[in-house]
């Protein structure tokens, strides 16, 4: 996937790289799907003096991410198949990385440690990482990729230089989608752009996962309500019986986007509609809370989808009290 909107990040990174005292820790912050990890890998290669055109892994670039959740999933990974990961980056991974940092870099004076996503560190892993950030080994630079930087310890954030990645505007994202997914029609691209909130990765994911029908159903539930549970049943059927964690995350993102779109629409149509507005805001807030809980709780997928549908229905004008 080609990179978009990284010009400012590259300018800041390269100015620091040319400077006398390069900061030892960087926080790459922005919503999911903006290409932060791709940037981190390319920036780390520049830092370590690697050939940009060489696809081989560099011995002085260490990447920590979520591991396969069990032996079965590890075998899938080794066979190049899709696999499920653990919910968090474990403290054992940080300890192993710290052990490697007791030696000198292999090919030069610098090495990079990339943690993606850093906001999925276990609490004990965060505390262990903090020690390395407080006393970094000579020549070691940390790049922390974060979709939700507020989840990081304040002491970790305070030791990092912030590199913020901003969403794309709608026109730029639509042009990019037209080139990356020429098979998608204009209406589908428009829905993907709206649902992604300016994230190329999320927009492409919307198309690849065929989330258009879900988007349409969710919008109907928010606008019409669902007193007979018919639309929620259709939503559960469209989601599927056993959605994986990534699909659930995409569905939660989509539900929040649908509510945000309806909030904008309601504000433009009638800013005095206070009760309806309050219902939309409350449903959006509860969806944000649910999305934060989903990666760490064992929710039944079917029940989770019904809960999403119920929160969307609670925001519909038909759900307001008759005496309002």
TrEMBL record:
Domain of life: Bacteria
Gene3D superfamilies: P-loop containing nucleotide triphosphate hydrolases
InterPro entries given in the database record: DNA_Rep/Repair_Clamp_Loader (IPR050238), P-loop_NTPase (IPR027417)
Disordered as annotated region, ranges: 51-83
Basic and acidic residues compositional bias, start-end: 57-83
TM helices/strands, residue ranges: none
Protein name: DNA polymerase III subunit delta
């Amino acid at each position: 996937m080609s990179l978009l909107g990284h010009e400012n990040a590259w300018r800041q990174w390269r100015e620091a790289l040319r400077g006398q005292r390069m900061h030892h820790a960087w926080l790459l912050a922005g919503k999911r799907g903006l290409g932060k990890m791709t940037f981190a890998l390319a920036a780390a290669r520049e830092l370590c003096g690697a050939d940009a055109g060489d696809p081989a892994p560099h011995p002085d670039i260490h990447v920590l991410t979520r591991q396969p959740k069990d032996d079965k999933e590890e075998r899938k990974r080794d066979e190049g198949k899709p696999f499920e990961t653990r919910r968090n980056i474990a403290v054992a991974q940080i300890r192993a990385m710290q052990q490697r940092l007791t030696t000198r870099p292999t090919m030069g004076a610098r090495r990079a440690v990339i943690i993606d996503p850093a906001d999925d560190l276990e609490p004990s892993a965060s505390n262990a990482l903090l020690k390395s950030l407080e006393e970094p080994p000579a020549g070691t630079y940390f790049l922390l990729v974060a979709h939700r930087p507020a989840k990081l310890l304040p002491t970790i954030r305070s030791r990092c230089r912030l590199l913020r990645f901003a969403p794309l505007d709608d026109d730029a994202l639509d042009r990019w989608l037209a080139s990356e997914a020429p098979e998608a029609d204009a209406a589908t691209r428009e829905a993907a752009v709206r649902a992604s909130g300016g994230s190329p990765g999320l927009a492409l994911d919307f198309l690849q996962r065929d989330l258009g029908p879900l988007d349409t159903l969710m919008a109907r539930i928010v606008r019409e309500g669902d007193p007979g549970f018919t639309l929620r049943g259709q939503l559960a059927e469209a989601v599927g019986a056993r959605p994986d964690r990534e699909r659930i995350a995409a569905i939660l993102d989509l539900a929040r986007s649908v509510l945000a779109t309806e909030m904008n629409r309601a504000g433009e149509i009638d800013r005095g509609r206070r009760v309806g507005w309050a219902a939309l805001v409350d449903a959006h807030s509860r969806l944000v809370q649910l999305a934060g809980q989903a990666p760490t709780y064992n929710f039944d997928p079917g029940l989770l989808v019904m809960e999403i549908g119920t929160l969307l229905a609670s925001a519909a004008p038909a759900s307001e009290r008759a005496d309002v």
